[in-house]
Amino acid sequence: MFEALSSVPWTWLAIRATGITSWGLLTAVVIWGILLKTRLLGKLATPQGLLVMHRWLSALALAFLAAHMGLLMIDPVVRFTPTQVLIPFTSPWEPIAVGLGALAFWMLIPVSIVGRLRTKLGKAGNTWFRRTHLIAYAAWPVATAHYVMAGTDALAAWSVALLITATTLIACALLVRGFVPPPSRRSAPRPATTESPEREPVLASVG
Ligand code: HEM
Questions:
Q1: Residue 145 to residues 13, 136, 154: CA-CA distances in angstroms?
Q2: Does the beta carbon of 20 lie inside 6 Å of ligand 1?
Q3: Does residue 206 surpass a pLDDT of 60?
Q4: For residue 198, how far is its CA from the centre of ligand 1 (angstroms)?
Q5: Is 72 in the pocket of ligand 1 (CB under 6 A)?
Q6: pLDDT in tens, 21-76
Q7: What is the pTM of this model?
Q8: Is the minimum distance from the CB of 35 to ligand 1 under 6 angstroms?
Q9: Is the CB–ligand 1 distance for residue 144 below 6 Å?
């Protein structure tokens, strides 16, 4: 087995490892984002804590994604050009499967840009932040389709188990989101001395 692995370019293994890591992180980002809008974890996690985690996970997912895309350009087997990596469906290898990955990448970009400009955009910033968040959440099924179609071992038992677990967790989080009401100003009158004034803006900041 180790002999077989030593004949494989390291870049290919790294492309796969960064792809799976970034997909796993993206899954966690989605789950954290949904949890942030519910009271499910109660006192176990503050909205601020969940938000910090959601942001860190997003930054890590993007970093692994950048590595995934960068490695494709130095891999000696297919030798992707920057255009083929960045423009969906122009890949010389499996254009649809790879193109879905590029599409998912572009779906994650608007929320990153609007997130930076949000305060400068005033009221419109909040509207655009929510819209771009929806696009970013929709990137998950697209990235998952890319994983299933392009992944070498996507249909191996461990990978199918991973896919089922992630899908179940997201489905459960969405169900919880539907049934557990988000924290609202009206439901809990807040004593001025104990409640943090940042609480509502923190929750309002997630799409
Ligand atoms: C959100 C964006 C993306 C995620 C989460 C992601 C994730 C993944 C995952 C999980 C795999 C399967 C690894 C394996 O087991 O073989 C994979 C494979 C692959 N991805 Fe991505 N990817 C993304 C974007 C991209 C982009 C933008 C490109 C370039 C256009 C790309 C090109 C590829 C290729 C060529 C493979 C096949 C690697 C192989 O097995 O030979 N991906 N990706």
A1: 20, 15, 10
A2: yes
A3: no
A4: 38
A5: yes
A6: 999 999 999 999 988 877 677 777 788 888 899 999 999 999 999 999 999 999 98
A7: 0.85
A8: no
A9: no
